[in-house]
Write a structure and sequence with these properties.
Number of helices: 3
Number of strands: 3
Oligomer: single chain
Shape: globular
Structural class: alpha/beta
Largest sheet: 3 strands, parallel
Helix content: 25-40%
Length: about 80
């Protein structure tokens, strides 16, 4: 069971698929506030402005990788 304070996410690596969508952007922001090391996998080109700006100004670790979820070697690298 996870602590309700969110401290469970601190420093943990989290891969978010769909992190550039409407709901995904809020999830990424929430995870970043909890000090998770977030990686977004997206096939969107160009990146939505909100995600690009969040990643550039966030003091927390947010990585954005462009690629396809069907690319097994990429998923192995990210997980």
């Amino acid at each position: 069971m996870m602590p309700s304070s969110g401290s469970w996410f601190r420093g943990r690596r989290v891969l978010v698929l769909g992190g550039t969508g409407f709901r995904g952007q809020y999830l990424v922001a929430a995870l970043a506030r909890l000090d998770a090391a977030v990686t977004i996998l997206t096939n969107n080109r160009p990146l939505p402005e909100a995600i690009a700006s969040l990643a550039s100004v966030a003091s927390r670790a947010i990585r954005i990788r462009q690629g396809d979820v069907c690319d097994s070697s990429l998923l192995t690298e990210l997980v």
